[in-house]
Fold each of these.
Amino acid sequence: MPPKAAQRSSLGLIVLGLLSEEPMHVYRMQKLIRQRGKHRVVNVRARASLYQTIQRLVRLGLVEARETVRTERHPDRTVYAISQAGRDAAIRWRREMLRITGGEFPEFIAAVAELAGLTPDDARQQLELRAERLAAALAETQAELGGHPGLPRLFLLEEEYRQAVLKAELSWVGGVVADLRAGRLTWTEPWRRQVAAAFTPPDDQEDAT
Protein backbone atom coordinates (compact mmCIF):
# COMPACT_ATOMS: atom_id res chain seq x y z
CA MET A 1 0.00 0.00 0.00
CA PRO A 2 1.25 3.55 -0.74
CA PRO A 3 2.02 5.76 2.24
CA LYS A 4 -0.83 7.69 3.81
CA ALA A 5 0.86 10.94 2.74
CA ALA A 6 0.05 10.05 -0.88
CA GLN A 7 -3.06 12.22 -1.04
CA ARG A 8 -4.88 11.90 -4.31
CA SER A 9 -4.98 14.65 -6.94
CA SER A 10 -6.65 14.85 -10.33
CA LEU A 11 -3.48 15.78 -12.22
CA GLY A 12 -1.52 13.17 -10.29
CA LEU A 13 -3.98 10.50 -11.38
CA ILE A 14 -3.71 11.54 -15.03
CA VAL A 15 0.09 11.38 -14.79
CA LEU A 16 -0.01 7.93 -13.20
CA GLY A 17 -2.42 6.80 -15.90
CA LEU A 18 -0.04 7.92 -18.65
CA LEU A 19 2.96 6.33 -17.01
CA SER A 20 1.09 3.07 -16.59
CA GLU A 21 1.14 2.86 -20.39
CA GLU A 22 4.89 3.41 -20.76
CA PRO A 23 7.76 5.45 -19.29
CA MET A 24 7.90 8.96 -20.76
CA HIS A 25 9.28 12.45 -20.25
CA VAL A 26 7.31 15.52 -19.26
CA TYR A 27 7.08 16.97 -22.76
CA ARG A 28 5.45 13.78 -24.08
CA MET A 29 3.05 13.74 -21.12
CA GLN A 30 1.94 17.29 -21.82
CA LYS A 31 1.54 16.53 -25.52
CA LEU A 32 -0.59 13.44 -24.87
CA ILE A 33 -2.72 15.28 -22.31
CA ARG A 34 -3.65 17.84 -24.96
CA GLN A 35 -4.05 15.33 -27.78
CA ARG A 36 -6.43 13.25 -25.69
CA GLY A 37 -8.41 16.23 -24.41
CA LYS A 38 -7.36 15.73 -20.79
CA HIS A 39 -6.50 19.43 -20.56
CA ARG A 40 -10.25 19.98 -20.27
CA VAL A 41 -10.26 17.71 -17.23
CA VAL A 42 -7.18 18.93 -15.34
CA ASN A 43 -5.33 22.23 -15.31
CA VAL A 44 -2.05 21.94 -17.20
CA ARG A 45 -1.92 25.42 -18.70
CA ALA A 46 1.47 25.90 -17.07
CA ARG A 47 4.05 23.15 -17.59
CA ALA A 48 5.41 24.03 -14.16
CA SER A 49 2.31 22.53 -12.55
CA LEU A 50 3.02 19.26 -14.33
CA TYR A 51 6.65 19.29 -13.16
CA GLN A 52 5.54 20.03 -9.60
CA THR A 53 3.07 17.15 -9.66
CA ILE A 54 5.70 14.73 -10.97
CA GLN A 55 8.22 15.81 -8.34
CA ARG A 56 5.59 15.26 -5.66
CA LEU A 57 4.88 11.77 -7.02
CA VAL A 58 8.63 11.06 -7.03
CA ARG A 59 8.94 12.14 -3.38
CA LEU A 60 6.05 9.86 -2.49
CA GLY A 61 7.67 6.92 -4.23
CA LEU A 62 4.87 6.60 -6.77
CA VAL A 63 7.05 7.61 -9.73
CA GLU A 64 10.76 7.21 -10.33
CA ALA A 65 13.26 8.74 -12.73
CA ARG A 66 14.22 6.01 -15.16
CA GLU A 67 16.83 7.66 -17.41
CA THR A 68 17.96 10.89 -19.04
CA VAL A 69 17.57 11.15 -22.80
CA ARG A 70 20.06 13.32 -24.62
CA THR A 71 19.61 14.48 -28.21
CA GLU A 72 21.16 17.21 -30.33
CA ARG A 73 17.80 18.83 -31.11
CA HIS A 74 16.36 18.98 -27.58
CA PRO A 75 17.59 19.65 -24.05
CA ASP A 76 18.18 16.67 -21.78
CA ARG A 77 14.89 15.07 -20.79
CA THR A 78 14.25 12.86 -17.78
CA VAL A 79 12.13 9.82 -18.48
CA TYR A 80 9.82 8.84 -15.64
CA ALA A 81 8.29 5.46 -14.85
CA ILE A 82 5.52 4.40 -12.49
CA SER A 83 6.42 2.25 -9.49
CA GLN A 84 4.34 -0.57 -8.08
CA ALA A 85 3.30 1.77 -5.27
CA GLY A 86 2.19 4.20 -7.97
CA ARG A 87 0.07 1.54 -9.68
CA ASP A 88 -1.54 0.68 -6.35
CA ALA A 89 -2.17 4.37 -5.59
CA ALA A 90 -3.71 4.96 -9.02
CA ILE A 91 -6.20 2.13 -8.46
CA ARG A 92 -7.06 3.43 -4.99
CA TRP A 93 -7.47 7.02 -6.26
CA ARG A 94 -9.74 5.93 -9.11
CA ARG A 95 -11.96 4.01 -6.72
CA GLU A 96 -12.14 6.89 -4.24
CA MET A 97 -12.78 9.55 -6.87
CA LEU A 98 -15.57 7.52 -8.44
CA ARG A 99 -17.47 6.77 -5.24
CA ILE A 100 -16.79 9.71 -2.88
CA THR A 101 -18.92 12.85 -3.00
CA GLY A 102 -18.89 16.09 -1.04
CA GLY A 103 -15.17 16.78 -1.08
CA GLU A 104 -15.21 19.33 -3.89
CA PHE A 105 -15.67 23.03 -3.26
CA PRO A 106 -15.89 24.90 -6.59
CA GLU A 107 -15.50 28.68 -6.59
CA PHE A 108 -18.78 29.12 -8.43
CA ILE A 109 -20.87 27.67 -5.60
CA ALA A 110 -19.14 29.97 -3.11
CA ALA A 111 -19.95 32.96 -5.34
CA VAL A 112 -23.59 31.84 -5.61
CA ALA A 113 -23.73 31.65 -1.81
CA GLU A 114 -22.57 35.29 -1.71
CA LEU A 115 -24.65 36.49 -4.68
CA ALA A 116 -26.50 39.04 -2.54
CA GLY A 117 -23.23 40.91 -2.10
CA LEU A 118 -23.73 42.24 -5.63
CA THR A 119 -26.63 44.27 -6.94
CA PRO A 120 -29.21 42.26 -8.90
CA ASP A 121 -28.14 43.95 -12.15
CA ASP A 122 -24.46 43.22 -11.54
CA ALA A 123 -25.21 39.61 -10.64
CA ARG A 124 -27.29 39.21 -13.79
CA GLN A 125 -24.52 40.63 -15.99
CA GLN A 126 -21.91 38.27 -14.53
CA LEU A 127 -24.20 35.26 -14.92
CA GLU A 128 -24.96 36.24 -18.51
CA LEU A 129 -21.22 36.21 -19.21
CA ARG A 130 -20.95 32.81 -17.56
CA ALA A 131 -23.82 31.52 -19.68
CA GLU A 132 -21.99 32.62 -22.84
CA ARG A 133 -18.87 30.74 -21.77
CA LEU A 134 -20.88 27.68 -20.80
CA ALA A 135 -22.56 27.68 -24.22
CA ALA A 136 -19.16 27.90 -25.92
CA ALA A 137 -17.77 25.06 -23.80
CA LEU A 138 -20.84 22.96 -24.54
CA ALA A 139 -20.42 23.50 -28.28
CA GLU A 140 -16.75 22.49 -27.97
CA THR A 141 -17.68 19.32 -26.10
CA GLN A 142 -20.38 18.41 -28.63
CA ALA A 143 -17.87 18.88 -31.43
CA GLU A 144 -15.38 16.67 -29.59
CA LEU A 145 -17.97 13.92 -29.17
CA GLY A 146 -18.84 14.04 -32.84
CA GLY A 147 -15.30 14.39 -34.10
CA HIS A 148 -14.03 10.88 -33.44
CA PRO A 149 -16.20 8.40 -35.34
CA GLY A 150 -15.36 4.85 -34.43
CA LEU A 151 -13.63 5.74 -31.15
CA PRO A 152 -14.97 3.44 -28.40
CA ARG A 153 -17.29 5.13 -25.93
CA LEU A 154 -14.94 4.29 -23.03
CA PHE A 155 -12.55 6.98 -24.26
CA LEU A 156 -15.27 9.62 -24.57
CA LEU A 157 -16.92 9.19 -21.19
CA GLU A 158 -15.35 12.33 -19.72
CA GLU A 159 -16.72 14.37 -22.65
CA GLU A 160 -20.16 12.82 -22.14
CA TYR A 161 -20.01 13.82 -18.50
CA ARG A 162 -18.82 17.34 -19.32
CA GLN A 163 -21.68 17.68 -21.79
CA ALA A 164 -24.25 16.59 -19.21
CA VAL A 165 -22.84 18.89 -16.53
CA LEU A 166 -22.58 21.87 -18.89
CA LYS A 167 -26.16 21.37 -20.11
CA ALA A 168 -27.45 21.22 -16.54
CA GLU A 169 -25.48 24.26 -15.39
CA LEU A 170 -26.40 26.30 -18.47
CA SER A 171 -30.07 25.50 -17.89
CA TRP A 172 -29.85 26.53 -14.23
CA VAL A 173 -27.90 29.72 -14.90
CA GLY A 174 -30.31 30.63 -17.67
CA GLY A 175 -33.23 30.23 -15.29
CA VAL A 176 -31.64 32.48 -12.67
CA VAL A 177 -30.82 35.10 -15.31
CA ALA A 178 -34.43 35.02 -16.55
CA ASP A 179 -35.73 35.53 -13.01
CA LEU A 180 -33.32 38.42 -12.43
CA ARG A 181 -34.37 40.07 -15.69
CA ALA A 182 -38.06 39.73 -14.84
CA GLY A 183 -37.62 40.95 -11.27
CA ARG A 184 -38.83 37.65 -9.80
CA LEU A 185 -35.47 37.39 -8.04
CA THR A 186 -34.27 40.64 -6.49
CA TRP A 187 -32.98 42.13 -3.26
CA THR A 188 -31.81 45.29 -1.55
CA GLU A 189 -29.27 45.81 1.19
CA PRO A 190 -31.86 46.75 3.85
CA TRP A 191 -33.93 43.68 2.97
CA ARG A 192 -30.83 41.50 3.09
CA ARG A 193 -29.93 42.79 6.56
CA GLN A 194 -33.50 42.26 7.75
CA VAL A 195 -33.50 38.63 6.61
CA ALA A 196 -30.09 38.03 8.14
CA ALA A 197 -31.27 39.41 11.49
CA ALA A 198 -34.42 37.29 11.41
CA PHE A 199 -32.63 34.03 10.70
CA THR A 200 -29.44 34.49 12.75
CA PRO A 201 -29.71 32.95 16.23
CA PRO A 202 -28.70 35.02 19.28
CA ASP A 203 -25.21 34.54 20.68
CA ASP A 204 -26.42 32.49 23.64
CA GLN A 205 -28.14 29.99 21.33
CA GLU A 206 -24.98 29.69 19.24
CA ASP A 207 -22.97 28.86 22.38
CA ALA A 208 -25.53 26.25 23.37
CA THR A 209 -24.88 24.28 20.19
Amino acid sequence: MTNQTSTSADQILMQIEKLSEKHFLPIIGASKGKILSEQVRNAKPHHILEVGTLIGYSSILIGKELDENAEIVTIEIHQDEAELAEKNIQRANIPPKITIMTGDAKTIIPSLKGSFDFVFIDAEKNEYFQYLKLSEPKLQKGTVIVADNAGIFADQMKGYLDYMRNSGKYRSRYVKVGGDGLEISVKL
Protein backbone atom coordinates (compact mmCIF):
# COMPACT_ATOMS: atom_id res chain seq x y z
CA MET A 1 0.00 0.00 0.00
CA THR A 2 1.36 3.38 -0.93
CA ASN A 3 1.67 6.20 1.52
CA GLN A 4 -0.62 8.26 -0.76
CA THR A 5 -3.38 5.66 -0.39
CA SER A 6 -3.09 5.68 3.38
CA THR A 7 -3.11 9.50 3.48
CA SER A 8 -6.25 9.79 1.30
CA ALA A 9 -8.07 7.16 3.34
CA ASP A 10 -7.07 8.75 6.66
CA GLN A 11 -8.28 12.16 5.45
CA ILE A 12 -11.66 10.77 4.38
CA LEU A 13 -12.02 8.87 7.68
CA MET A 14 -11.32 12.07 9.65
CA GLN A 15 -13.85 14.00 7.53
CA ILE A 16 -16.51 11.36 8.23
CA GLU A 17 -15.67 11.41 11.97
CA LYS A 18 -16.14 15.21 12.04
CA LEU A 19 -19.41 14.89 10.09
CA SER A 20 -20.53 12.24 12.57
CA GLU A 21 -19.93 14.61 15.49
CA LYS A 22 -22.06 17.34 13.86
CA HIS A 23 -24.91 15.13 12.56
CA PHE A 24 -25.24 11.91 14.49
CA LEU A 25 -24.04 9.14 12.20
CA PRO A 26 -23.80 5.68 13.77
CA ILE A 27 -20.30 4.89 12.45
CA ILE A 28 -18.03 2.49 14.32
CA GLY A 29 -15.74 5.43 15.16
CA ALA A 30 -12.03 5.66 15.86
CA SER A 31 -11.81 3.69 19.14
CA LYS A 32 -13.72 0.58 18.02
CA GLY A 33 -12.31 1.15 14.53
CA LYS A 34 -8.78 0.50 15.82
CA ILE A 35 -9.88 -2.92 17.05
CA LEU A 36 -11.66 -3.67 13.75
CA SER A 37 -8.51 -2.67 11.81
CA GLU A 38 -6.38 -4.88 14.05
CA GLN A 39 -8.70 -7.85 13.41
CA VAL A 40 -8.44 -7.27 9.64
CA ARG A 41 -4.63 -7.01 9.81
CA ASN A 42 -4.40 -10.24 11.82
CA ALA A 43 -6.86 -12.19 9.65
CA LYS A 44 -5.47 -10.98 6.28
CA PRO A 45 -8.81 -11.73 4.58
CA HIS A 46 -9.45 -11.77 0.82
CA HIS A 47 -13.26 -11.89 0.66
CA ILE A 48 -15.03 -9.59 3.07
CA LEU A 49 -18.76 -9.18 3.66
CA GLU A 50 -19.97 -6.01 5.35
CA VAL A 51 -23.61 -5.63 6.38
CA GLY A 52 -24.40 -1.95 6.88
CA THR A 53 -22.32 0.41 4.73
CA LEU A 54 -23.86 3.71 5.86
CA ILE A 55 -21.54 6.27 4.18
CA GLY A 56 -18.47 4.05 3.81
CA TYR A 57 -16.49 4.67 7.01
CA SER A 58 -15.94 1.03 7.98
CA SER A 59 -15.45 -0.05 4.34
CA ILE A 60 -12.59 2.45 4.11
CA LEU A 61 -11.24 1.40 7.51
CA ILE A 62 -11.23 -2.27 6.46
CA GLY A 63 -10.02 -1.58 2.92
CA LYS A 64 -7.05 0.46 4.17
CA GLU A 65 -5.65 -2.76 5.64
CA LEU A 66 -5.99 -4.81 2.44
CA ASP A 67 -4.27 -5.09 -0.91
CA GLU A 68 -5.64 -5.08 -4.46
CA ASN A 69 -6.24 -8.86 -4.34
CA ALA A 70 -8.95 -8.43 -1.70
CA GLU A 71 -12.64 -7.82 -2.34
CA ILE A 72 -15.25 -6.23 -0.10
CA VAL A 73 -18.96 -6.73 -0.71
CA THR A 74 -20.88 -4.21 1.35
CA ILE A 75 -24.65 -3.94 1.68
CA GLU A 76 -26.59 -0.75 2.42
CA ILE A 77 -30.38 -0.60 2.50
CA HIS A 78 -30.64 3.17 1.83
CA GLN A 79 -29.88 4.36 -1.73
CA ASP A 80 -28.75 7.88 -0.75
CA GLU A 81 -26.30 6.56 1.85
CA ALA A 82 -24.98 3.94 -0.61
CA GLU A 83 -24.32 6.70 -3.17
CA LEU A 84 -22.48 8.82 -0.60
CA ALA A 85 -20.50 5.74 0.50
CA GLU A 86 -19.44 5.14 -3.09
CA LYS A 87 -18.13 8.72 -3.40
CA ASN A 88 -16.27 8.50 -0.08
CA ILE A 89 -14.73 5.13 -0.99
CA GLN A 90 -13.57 6.42 -4.38
CA ARG A 91 -12.04 9.51 -2.76
CA ALA A 92 -10.26 7.31 -0.18
CA ASN A 93 -8.39 5.56 -3.00
CA ILE A 94 -8.01 2.20 -1.22
CA PRO A 95 -6.64 -0.90 -2.97
CA PRO A 96 -9.34 -3.62 -2.73
CA LYS A 97 -12.25 -4.00 -5.12
CA ILE A 98 -15.38 -2.79 -3.33
CA THR A 99 -18.88 -3.66 -4.48
CA ILE A 100 -21.71 -1.71 -2.86
CA MET A 101 -25.05 -3.48 -3.07
CA THR A 102 -28.17 -1.46 -2.30
CA GLY A 103 -31.13 -3.22 -0.72
CA ASP A 104 -32.16 -5.43 2.18
CA ALA A 105 -29.27 -7.62 3.35
CA LYS A 106 -31.74 -10.43 4.15
CA THR A 107 -32.56 -10.58 0.42
CA ILE A 108 -29.06 -9.90 -0.92
CA ILE A 109 -26.96 -12.27 1.25
CA PRO A 110 -28.55 -15.50 -0.11
CA SER A 111 -27.82 -14.33 -3.69
CA LEU A 112 -24.10 -13.75 -3.09
CA LYS A 113 -21.68 -16.14 -4.77
CA GLY A 114 -18.54 -17.58 -3.20
CA SER A 115 -17.40 -17.61 0.38
CA PHE A 116 -16.18 -15.03 2.88
CA ASP A 117 -13.24 -15.10 5.29
CA PHE A 118 -14.19 -11.92 7.18
CA VAL A 119 -17.58 -10.44 8.08
CA PHE A 120 -18.40 -7.09 9.68
CA ILE A 121 -21.98 -6.55 10.87
CA ASP A 122 -23.22 -3.08 11.77
CA ALA A 123 -26.85 -2.74 10.69
CA GLU A 124 -30.26 -3.45 12.28
CA LYS A 125 -29.30 -4.86 15.68
CA ASN A 126 -32.33 -7.17 16.00
CA GLU A 127 -31.48 -8.70 12.59
CA TYR A 128 -27.83 -9.66 13.30
CA PHE A 129 -28.81 -13.30 13.89
CA GLN A 130 -30.66 -13.43 10.56
CA TYR A 131 -27.67 -11.92 8.72
CA LEU A 132 -25.41 -14.50 10.32
CA LYS A 133 -27.66 -17.48 9.55
CA LEU A 134 -28.04 -16.37 5.91
CA SER A 135 -24.28 -15.92 5.49
CA GLU A 136 -23.23 -18.98 7.51
CA PRO A 137 -23.17 -21.38 4.51
CA LYS A 138 -20.71 -18.97 2.85
CA LEU A 139 -18.29 -18.82 5.82
CA GLN A 140 -15.06 -20.80 5.86
CA LYS A 141 -13.43 -22.35 8.89
CA GLY A 142 -11.43 -19.55 10.51
CA THR A 143 -13.70 -16.76 9.23
CA VAL A 144 -13.64 -13.79 11.61
CA ILE A 145 -16.99 -12.13 12.33
CA VAL A 146 -17.02 -8.74 14.05
CA ALA A 147 -20.35 -7.39 15.28
CA ASP A 148 -20.60 -3.76 16.39
CA ASN A 149 -22.67 -2.45 19.31
CA ALA A 150 -22.64 -5.72 21.29
CA GLY A 151 -22.61 -3.70 24.52
CA ILE A 152 -25.27 -1.02 24.22
CA PHE A 153 -27.58 -3.16 22.07
CA ALA A 154 -26.89 -6.55 23.70
CA ASP A 155 -30.60 -6.97 24.46
CA GLN A 156 -31.57 -6.50 20.79
CA MET A 157 -28.72 -8.81 19.75
CA LYS A 158 -29.52 -11.53 22.31
CA GLY A 159 -30.25 -14.29 19.76
CA TYR A 160 -27.06 -13.50 17.86
CA LEU A 161 -24.89 -13.30 20.98
CA ASP A 162 -26.34 -16.48 22.52
CA TYR A 163 -25.71 -18.38 19.29
CA MET A 164 -22.15 -17.11 18.85
CA ARG A 165 -21.25 -17.92 22.44
CA ASN A 166 -23.10 -21.21 22.92
CA SER A 167 -23.63 -23.01 19.59
CA GLY A 168 -20.19 -24.65 19.59
CA LYS A 169 -19.70 -23.39 16.02
CA TYR A 170 -17.71 -20.30 17.04
CA ARG A 171 -15.09 -19.13 19.49
CA SER A 172 -16.45 -15.76 20.57
CA ARG A 173 -15.48 -12.95 22.92
CA TYR A 174 -16.74 -9.53 23.83
CA VAL A 175 -14.30 -6.62 23.66
CA LYS A 176 -15.45 -3.62 25.70
CA VAL A 177 -14.65 -0.19 24.27
CA GLY A 178 -15.88 2.74 26.32
CA GLY A 179 -19.60 2.27 26.99
CA ASP A 180 -20.02 -0.20 24.13
CA GLY A 181 -18.06 -2.97 22.48
CA LEU A 182 -17.57 -5.53 19.74
CA GLU A 183 -18.36 -9.23 19.65
CA ILE A 184 -15.45 -10.89 17.85
CA SER A 185 -16.03 -14.47 16.74
CA VAL A 186 -14.10 -17.06 14.75
CA LYS A 187 -15.83 -19.91 12.91
CA LEU A 188 -14.58 -23.30 14.13
Amino acid sequence: MAAERFVQRLGEQIGKEFAASQQYIANAVYYDAQTLPRLAAFFYAQAVEERNHALMMVQYLLDVDAEVAIPGVEAPETGFDTIAAPVELALAQEKQVSDQIVALMGVARDEGDYLSEQFLQWFLKEQVEEVSTMSSLLSVVQRSAQAPMFVEDYLAREHSAESEDPTAPPVAGGAL
Protein backbone atom coordinates (compact mmCIF):
# COMPACT_ATOMS: atom_id res chain seq x y z
CA MET A 1 0.00 0.00 0.00
CA ALA A 2 1.28 3.50 0.84
CA ALA A 3 4.96 3.90 1.67
CA GLU A 4 5.63 4.19 5.40
CA ARG A 5 7.55 7.45 5.03
CA PHE A 6 4.71 8.92 2.98
CA VAL A 7 2.13 7.86 5.58
CA GLN A 8 4.15 9.53 8.33
CA ARG A 9 4.53 12.78 6.36
CA LEU A 10 0.88 12.80 5.31
CA GLY A 11 -0.04 12.42 8.99
CA GLU A 12 2.00 15.54 9.72
CA GLN A 13 0.26 17.34 6.86
CA ILE A 14 -3.12 16.45 8.36
CA GLY A 15 -2.12 18.46 11.42
CA LYS A 16 -1.03 21.37 9.23
CA GLU A 17 -4.36 21.34 7.42
CA PHE A 18 -6.27 21.38 10.72
CA ALA A 19 -4.02 24.24 11.91
CA ALA A 20 -4.82 26.15 8.71
CA SER A 21 -8.51 25.61 9.39
CA GLN A 22 -8.12 27.03 12.89
CA GLN A 23 -6.21 30.03 11.54
CA TYR A 24 -8.96 30.74 9.04
CA ILE A 25 -11.54 30.62 11.83
CA ALA A 26 -9.44 33.18 13.72
CA ASN A 27 -9.30 35.34 10.59
CA ALA A 28 -13.07 35.06 10.20
CA VAL A 29 -13.68 36.01 13.82
CA TYR A 30 -11.48 39.09 13.38
CA TYR A 31 -13.50 40.20 10.35
CA ASP A 32 -16.79 39.41 12.10
CA ALA A 33 -15.69 41.68 14.96
CA GLN A 34 -14.91 44.40 12.39
CA THR A 35 -18.46 44.05 10.96
CA LEU A 36 -17.16 42.81 7.62
CA PRO A 37 -19.54 39.89 7.09
CA ARG A 38 -18.40 38.87 3.61
CA LEU A 39 -14.75 38.70 4.62
CA ALA A 40 -15.81 36.74 7.69
CA ALA A 41 -17.94 34.37 5.58
CA PHE A 42 -15.09 33.93 3.10
CA PHE A 43 -12.72 32.81 5.86
CA TYR A 44 -15.31 30.65 7.62
CA ALA A 45 -15.76 28.85 4.28
CA GLN A 46 -11.99 28.59 3.87
CA ALA A 47 -11.79 27.04 7.34
CA VAL A 48 -14.25 24.32 6.31
CA GLU A 49 -12.30 23.76 3.10
CA GLU A 50 -9.02 23.30 5.00
CA ARG A 51 -10.70 20.96 7.46
CA ASN A 52 -12.02 18.97 4.53
CA HIS A 53 -8.52 18.80 3.04
CA ALA A 54 -7.36 17.19 6.30
CA LEU A 55 -10.29 14.77 6.17
CA MET A 56 -9.52 13.88 2.54
CA MET A 57 -6.06 12.91 3.72
CA VAL A 58 -7.55 10.92 6.60
CA GLN A 59 -9.84 9.10 4.17
CA TYR A 60 -6.91 8.28 1.89
CA LEU A 61 -4.99 6.75 4.77
CA LEU A 62 -8.06 4.76 5.76
CA ASP A 63 -8.49 3.62 2.15
CA VAL A 64 -4.91 2.34 1.94
CA ASP A 65 -5.23 0.63 5.33
CA ALA A 66 -2.62 2.86 6.96
CA GLU A 67 -2.60 3.95 10.58
CA VAL A 68 -4.17 7.37 11.07
CA ALA A 69 -2.90 9.68 13.79
CA ILE A 70 -4.51 13.08 14.30
CA PRO A 71 -1.86 15.51 15.56
CA GLY A 72 -2.59 18.45 17.83
CA VAL A 73 -2.26 22.00 16.58
CA GLU A 74 -0.90 25.22 18.02
CA ALA A 75 -3.23 28.10 18.75
CA PRO A 76 -3.79 30.38 15.76
CA GLU A 77 -2.73 34.00 15.55
CA THR A 78 -5.62 36.21 16.64
CA GLY A 79 -4.20 39.71 17.03
CA PHE A 80 -4.15 41.68 13.80
CA ASP A 81 -3.02 45.29 13.42
CA THR A 82 -4.51 45.99 9.99
CA ILE A 83 -7.37 44.81 7.83
CA ALA A 84 -4.82 43.30 5.44
CA ALA A 85 -2.89 41.33 8.08
CA PRO A 86 -5.17 38.24 8.13
CA VAL A 87 -5.05 38.00 4.32
CA GLU A 88 -1.28 38.48 4.31
CA LEU A 89 -1.04 35.62 6.80
CA ALA A 90 -3.41 33.50 4.70
CA LEU A 91 -1.35 34.06 1.54
CA ALA A 92 1.88 33.14 3.33
CA GLN A 93 0.15 30.07 4.75
CA GLU A 94 -1.09 28.96 1.31
CA LYS A 95 2.37 29.38 -0.19
CA GLN A 96 3.80 27.29 2.65
CA VAL A 97 1.16 24.59 2.13
CA SER A 98 2.03 24.55 -1.57
CA ASP A 99 5.65 23.85 -0.65
CA GLN A 100 4.52 21.15 1.77
CA ILE A 101 2.39 19.40 -0.85
CA VAL A 102 5.26 19.54 -3.35
CA ALA A 103 7.55 18.00 -0.71
CA LEU A 104 4.96 15.26 -0.08
CA MET A 105 4.86 14.60 -3.81
CA GLY A 106 8.63 14.25 -3.71
CA VAL A 107 8.40 11.69 -0.90
CA ALA A 108 5.83 9.66 -2.83
CA ARG A 109 7.98 9.80 -5.95
CA ASP A 110 11.18 8.92 -4.07
CA GLU A 111 9.44 5.94 -2.49
CA GLY A 112 7.97 4.77 -5.81
CA ASP A 113 4.51 5.21 -4.24
CA TYR A 114 2.61 6.01 -7.42
CA LEU A 115 -0.83 5.68 -5.85
CA SER A 116 0.00 8.32 -3.24
CA GLU A 117 1.56 10.48 -5.94
CA GLN A 118 -1.68 10.28 -7.90
CA PHE A 119 -3.69 11.15 -4.78
CA LEU A 120 -1.68 14.35 -4.37
CA GLN A 121 -2.33 15.57 -7.93
CA TRP A 122 -5.61 17.18 -6.89
CA PHE A 123 -3.93 19.00 -4.01
CA LEU A 124 -1.31 20.47 -6.36
CA LYS A 125 -4.07 21.89 -8.55
CA GLU A 126 -5.92 23.14 -5.48
CA GLN A 127 -2.87 24.98 -4.17
CA VAL A 128 -2.43 26.90 -7.43
CA GLU A 129 -6.04 28.06 -7.03
CA GLU A 130 -5.64 28.87 -3.31
CA VAL A 131 -2.51 30.99 -3.80
CA SER A 132 -4.11 32.82 -6.70
CA THR A 133 -7.29 33.52 -4.72
CA MET A 134 -5.43 34.82 -1.66
CA SER A 135 -3.06 36.88 -3.80
CA SER A 136 -5.98 38.56 -5.57
CA LEU A 137 -7.82 39.12 -2.31
CA LEU A 138 -4.73 40.67 -0.74
CA SER A 139 -4.39 43.09 -3.66
CA VAL A 140 -8.01 44.16 -3.26
CA VAL A 141 -7.71 44.51 0.52
CA GLN A 142 -4.53 46.56 0.25
CA ARG A 143 -6.07 48.91 -2.33
CA SER A 144 -9.23 49.23 -0.25
CA ALA A 145 -7.71 49.49 3.24
CA GLN A 146 -9.33 52.88 3.82
CA ALA A 147 -12.68 51.72 2.43
CA PRO A 148 -13.15 48.06 3.41
CA MET A 149 -16.69 47.98 2.06
CA PHE A 150 -15.10 47.82 -1.40
CA VAL A 151 -13.64 44.45 -0.33
CA GLU A 152 -17.11 43.35 0.73
CA ASP A 153 -18.43 44.35 -2.72
CA TYR A 154 -15.57 42.48 -4.42
CA LEU A 155 -16.33 39.31 -2.49
CA ALA A 156 -20.04 39.62 -3.28
CA ARG A 157 -19.23 39.83 -6.98
CA GLU A 158 -16.34 37.41 -7.29
CA HIS A 159 -16.89 34.77 -4.59
CA SER A 160 -20.62 34.54 -4.08
CA ALA A 161 -21.22 31.10 -5.60
CA GLU A 162 -18.51 28.59 -4.76
CA SER A 163 -19.19 25.19 -6.26
CA GLU A 164 -17.91 21.80 -5.21
CA ASP A 165 -15.18 20.19 -7.27
CA PRO A 166 -16.38 16.77 -8.47
CA THR A 167 -12.75 15.67 -8.91
CA ALA A 168 -11.92 16.24 -5.22
CA PRO A 169 -10.94 13.21 -3.16
CA PRO A 170 -13.59 11.90 -0.76
CA VAL A 171 -13.78 13.37 2.73
CA ALA A 172 -13.70 11.09 5.77
CA GLY A 173 -17.18 11.04 7.25
CA GLY A 174 -18.75 12.29 4.03
CA ALA A 175 -19.26 15.93 3.14
CA LEU A 176 -20.22 17.28 6.55
